[in-house]
Amino acid sequence: MKKYVVRCLLLLLLSPLTTAKENVTPEDERIRYEGRFDSPAPGTYRTDWPCARLSFGVNNVREEGGSIDVSWSSERVRLNATAWRADGSIASSEIFVGPKWRNKKQTSTLNLPKDASFVTIRKLTQAAPFGTGIGEKALAASVWEYHGVEVTGAEVVSLSPRKRVVEYIGASDSAGYCADGTPDIDGTAALLIDSWLYDNCDLATPGLLANYFDADLWVEAEGGMGLTQNANARIPAFEGKYPLPYFWENQALLTDSSSSWDPTDSNNQLSPDLVVVSLGGNDYNHQHGNVPSNETFSAAYEEFLLKIFSAYESNEDAKILSVCGQGSPAESAFDPDNNRCSPCPHVEDALNDFKINHPELGERAYLGFVPCDGSVVVGDDDIGCAGHKNAVGQRKVFDYLQPLVSEIMDW
Ligand SMILES: *[C@@H]1O[C@H](CO)[C@@H](O)[C@H](O)[C@H]1NC(C)=O
Ligand SMILES: *[C@@H]1O[C@H](CO)[C@@H](O)[C@H](O)[C@H]1NC(C)=O
């Protein structure tokens, strides 16, 4: 009996590393970040971009399982917290939902099953649920402030970087706007006030591609944004006056003009293998004929591609894929001023001009035309709210683009 007690005591003394709690701060080097984050104060990292994510490895999860308590503040933010097994299957997953009004600090828990090997926490919501114009000034944006994590019953370890890096620059389709919605909320207050509940960047094409190709993912995308002008440009109050390239060049956070970002700064540690540019739809649709001239669009496209290539010039193999289309026959039949394929001839012309003007870089620029004729997105069960693709529709676009990406990247 005495011997047994002594042995138990010894075991207790020897095993406890993984039963203790450990506080891991946002600055801890074992945490990896994807997407643009900044740090407004020590102990806090924040971001507003969809698909932004942090990850870390876990070792020696105790027999009965462990847990992580994530400390964060937000308004209108949804996060997907997932624990993965080493083989890439999912061990546990939770959706964390922040308050709808008034920024609040909270702690959310994810259980760690014994076989968990790493944890990811990804932002599902886009930055400005009420548009990047007046709505953003009046109602707070969807900003995720991350204060750290308390880990129980497991050891935190660093993760090696993923195999590849993809940057995805676009508008609503790239942000996953309405991917979790259904058409029956169209025209209701639920869509107007609570659209953030239906954003899902993880189940949108960028999230699916990154998962499939084992790539780090940086998304700078927001509904309504264009290359030369935003949707409804004649009413700047809706979407603000700056199109997306301005934010890509200047800001860490879309919704905070005081947060600065310089894509050419190598300290940002972003050197993508593939940059997807999915812009142009909002330049041409819902504009009541007020669209850019061919010269204006082509010149802006050239300027943006040049800036991207030059920011990442240290990677001589970096490639750009210009995606356009991904609509359905139903949408243009319903509203002729809303045809996702209408910008495609312009994107194609702009890309051809770019190849003529910059033959060497042009060899690394590709067109990803996703037809709108019903051969990809049909317009029935693949549509979520507000005429945007649901998870099924987003996956169809992923299925269409994945072989193309494999081919041009040799992945
Ligand atoms: C959360 O993320 C995992 C991994 O990407 C995914 O399989 C799951 O569907 C996501 N959950 C939701 C509700 O989006
Ligand atoms: C502009 O480009 C489109 C698409 O290629 C073409 O159909 C149209 O004729 C061009 N317009 C002018 C004025 O050149």
UniProtKB/TrEMBL annotation:
Source organism of the structure: Triparma verrucosa
Database matches in InterPro entries: PCW_deacetylase/CE (IPR052762), SGNH_hydro_sf (IPR036514)
Protein name: Uncharacterized protein
SUPFAM superfamilies: SGNH hydrolase
Transmembrane segments: none
Keyword Signal listed: yes
Keywords: Signal
Highest taxon of source: Eukaryota
Signal peptide: 1-20
